[in-house]
């Protein structure tokens, strides 16, 4: 880790940095928490105008071969609009972020002196280098960036994500029944939660997610699900995660279909106003005759995770993860989120943070245990 006159009470090397979202100069957006799982360069260039800024930018991007979307990305933060199109560099691993109110530069201690902050794949600062002397800055930064290893080697030892895989949660016959039910009834685009103006709404964007879901509404099916989870999965979650789940969000059979390019891009399951109650995600595979479509946790490398048929993969809803594209066949899975009583109260309180048209939570149909059993 390297530092050069870092301002007090700002970015501390080794610590996680503040998450932020910012607009790009081309009208897009950048969300730091989703970008994790790579080495990240945040270059606080300051005002975009002037010969010095142009020189800094030209020198920074002189080694364009260093940057690629899977390993190392660069994001140049500008406090004034660029006078000319600075974005035409032909490298999708480099973007230009707007900070015209200076809030982001202030948060990262870059108001007084332009600087570059380098982050590891878990969004912790490993360098904070001031632009006090151009040659020294670029020399030290270039040496650091060229020394960075692949993401899989970022920790110096092999990494595994904190995922609990529990086999034989659903009976094989029950898995087959759920697959046949989906094939007979079909599913609908599930979309994903997105916050706008502080409120959550369901949106569909095939660039980020392509999946169809079938809700399970028959009481007997829902009770079979809860019964097998109570006996075969919840004890393992209690033992290994020290969490006593009492409620479950959703009873759905999901289908990722290679015919339409099924996938789910990087995301976290609890960052939206309508999802803050979620504690643990549960994925129970219902079949195995497919290729691709595996879980991946980018902050821990490129290793893939797949539960066996009838088995569950359980992980924290705060973990950045993705479902890789399916390349052959169809993958069927039962998907749910687990939480507890305090989380249920939070979910009910967050009803007012849902956009009009989104289903409100009543707290009456998400219990994993019968009411009298919990009394």
Summarize the topology:
Blueprint: E1 2-4, E2 21-23, E3 29-31, H1 32-35, E4 39-46, H2 51-60, E5 72-78, E6 94-98, H3 103-107, E7 115-119, E8 125-130, H4 134-147, E9 164-166, H5 172-185, E10 188-189, E11 192-196, E12 199-203, E13 209-210, E14 212-215, H6 219-232, H7 234-241, E15 247-257, E16 263-267, E17 280-285, E18 290-292, E19 295-296, E20 304-305, E21 312-316, E22 321-323, E23 326-339, H8 341-349, H9 371-374
Parallel strand pairs: 1-8, 4-5, 5-6
Antiparallel strand pairs: 2-3, 4-7, 7-8, 9-21, 10-14, 11-12, 13-16, 14-15, 15-23, 16-22, 17-21, 17-23, 18-23, 19-20, 19-22
Short description:
The protein is 22% helix and 30% strand. With 375 residues, the protein is α+β, with helices and mostly antiparallel strands.
């Amino acid at each position: 880790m390297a530092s050069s006159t870092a301002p007090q009470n700002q970015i501390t090397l080794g610590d996680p940095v503040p998450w932020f979202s910012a607009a790009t100069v081309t009208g897009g957006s950048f969300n730091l928490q989703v970008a994790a799982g790579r080495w990240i360069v945040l270059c606080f260039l300051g005002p975009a105008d002037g010969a010095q800024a142009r020189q800094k930018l030209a020198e920074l991007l002189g080694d364009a071969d260093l940057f690629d979307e899977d390993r190392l990305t660069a994001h140049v933060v500008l406090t004034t609009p660029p006078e000319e199109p600075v974005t035409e560099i032909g490298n999708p691993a480099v973007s230009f972020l707007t900070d015209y109110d200076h809030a982001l530069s202030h948060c990262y201690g870059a108001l007084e002196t332009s600087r570059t902050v380098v982050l590891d794949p878990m969004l912790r600062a490993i360098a904070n280098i001031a632009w006090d002397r151009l040659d020294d800055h670029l020399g030290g930064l270039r040496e650091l960036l060229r020394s960075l290893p692949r993401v899989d080697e970022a920790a110096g030892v092999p990494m595994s994500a904190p995922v609990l895989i529990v086999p034989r949660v659903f009976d094989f016959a029950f898995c087959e029944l759920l697959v046949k039910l989906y094939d007979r009834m079909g599913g609908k685009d599930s979309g994903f939660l997105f916050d706008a103006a502080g409120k959550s709404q369901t949106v569909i964007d095939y660039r980020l997610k392509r999946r169809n879901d079938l809700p399970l509404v028959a009481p007997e099916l829902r009770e079979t699900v809860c019964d097998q989870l109570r006996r075969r999965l919840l004890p393992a979650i209690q033992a290994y995660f020290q969490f006593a789940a009492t409620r479950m969000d959703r009873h759905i059979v999901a289908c990722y279909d290679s015919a339409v390019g099924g996938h789910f891009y990087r995301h976290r399951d609890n960052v939206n106003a309508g999802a803050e109650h979620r504690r643990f995600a549960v994925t129970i595979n219902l079949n195995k005759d497919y290729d691709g479509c595996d879980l991946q946790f980018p902050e821990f490398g490129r290793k893939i995770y797949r539960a066996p048929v009838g088995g569950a993969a359980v992980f924290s809803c705060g973990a950045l993860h993705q479902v890789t594209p399916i390349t052959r066949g169809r993958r069927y899975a039962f998907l749910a989120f687990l939480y507890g009583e305090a989380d249920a109260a939070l979910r009910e309180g967050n009803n007012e943070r849902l956009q009009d048209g989104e289903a409100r939570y009543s707290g009456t149909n998400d219990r994993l245990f019968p009411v009298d059993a919990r009394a």
